Amino acid sequence: MIEVDRLTVTYGSTTVVKDASFSCRPGTVTGFLGPNGAGKSTTMRVLCGLTRATSGTATVNGMRYGQLRNPAREIGVLLDPTTQHSGRTGRENLTVSARMMGVTKERVEDMLELVGLGGAPAARRVGEYSLGMRQRLGLAHALLGEPNILVLDEPVNGLDPEGIHWMRGLLREFADGGGIVLLSSHLLREVDAVADSLVLIQRGEIIAKGNKTDLLTATGTVVRAVDQAQLSAVLSAAGIPATRTEDHAFIADAQAETVGRAAAEAGVVLLELRSADSGGLEEMFLAMTRDTSNDDTSNDDATNDAVREPQS
Ligand SMILES: Nc1ncnc2c1ncn2[C@@H]1O[C@H](COP(=O)(O)OP(=O)(O)OP(=O)(O)O)[C@@H](O)[C@H]1O
Fold it and tell me: Domain ABC transporter: where (predicted)?
């Protein structure tokens, strides 16, 4: 199991992960989604013992990373493929790690073959590798100790479409065999094809989590008013979480009747009121990406403050 429990990470006066909790179970691929700077890497770094938690915990099979006797045998990590030793060949990089883990040379060769770096590429210096090849080597490294958990930070960056397809298949197979995969991305469609579960993080806060199918089919209500600022204030006052969509409607986390009544009681004239259907999560994700990328320029309303984790 991976368990992140009320994790908070603060750098100086800036809190980059705030009271985050989620877990990943055997047999699942969890997509860890959020825009740039949301706190994905920081959360993963705590899980892998590279960053200290200010409060809360992140554990692997019930223990902090530092408490694991031979961590690479329990958790395979790919955080930054550019940190591999560029003066060594791919094979040498894996061989050095294999010695430290107590893994055989055969396993090194098997992993090189598995990730498509067998033969000539294995004998090339990593400094000559493309980013895609480094990602493949990073995955081989993560798998070397035969762990049952993989933590991968944006692993498809630099892979071509065939490589992305290949990696998805490999991760799916790993999870289907009882493994746990935590996979970060800033693109919903990148993890949509392989994940069973999703955890959405924005500005360090987990704003949605759960089974992917449930999240994608979560209803919610699309609502649009003549006066959107007035509607935003009404939703906020009624305690209804809402996110503004790309086309300037709101997705409210409540039934249409509840939203309609709140608007009617406040005398807000509605132009649209309907179930969000499966577009809800996609819209929410687009909105949170836009909100974050506009951080420096936008203070147009308090909509984002109303975003909450959906009730399950
Ligand atoms: N060592 C550090 N000192 C200060 N701030 C940091 C440090 N590491 C990360 N941050 C800040 O923490 C925030 C979260 O960063 P993090 O790398 O976890 O985000 P992310 O979701 O992984 O985004 P990206 O995909 O861009 O890496 C960012 O604002 C980042 O600038």
Answer: 2-228
110 lies in the same domain as 147: yes
Q: Is residue 311 part of a domain?
A: no
Gyration radius (Cα) of the chain, Å: 22
Query: Given a cut of 90, is residue 175 above it in pLDDT?
Result: yes
pTM of the model: 0.76
Atom of ligand 1 nearest to the CA of 41: 22
C-alpha dihedral sign at 55, 56, 62, 65: negative
Residues 12 and 123 in one domain: yes
Examine the domain organization and report whether 119 and 246 are in the same domain. no
Of 40, 153, 187, best ligand 1 pocket probe by most atoms within 8 Å of the beta carbon: 40
Q: Read off the pLDDT of residues 219-265 as tens digits, 9 standing for 90 and up.
A: 688 899 999 999 999 999 999 988 887 677 888 888 889 999 999 99
Q: How many domains does the chain have?
A: 2
203 CB less than 6 Å from ligand 1? no
CATH of the domain at 160: 3.40.50.300
136 CB within 6 A, ligand 1: no
**Domain end: 211, 226, 248, which one?**
211
Pocket test for ligand 1, best of 9, 11, 202 (most atoms within 8 A of CB): 11
Whether ligand 1 lies within 6 angstroms of the CB of 186 is answered as yes
Q: Reduced to 3 states, what is the DSSP secondary structure of residue 259?
A: helix
Fill in the DSSP letter of residue 63: B
Whether 11 lines ligand 1, by a CB cut-off of 6 Å, is yes
- ipTM comes to 0.93
Question: Is the pLDDT confidence value at 307 over 70?
Answer: no
For 40, 107, 195, 198, 263, the CA distances from 190, given in Å and listed in that order, are 15, 29, 9, 12, 37
Domain match, 8 and 25 both: yes
pLDDT digits (tens, 9 = 90+) for 141-163: 999 999 999 999 999 888 888 89
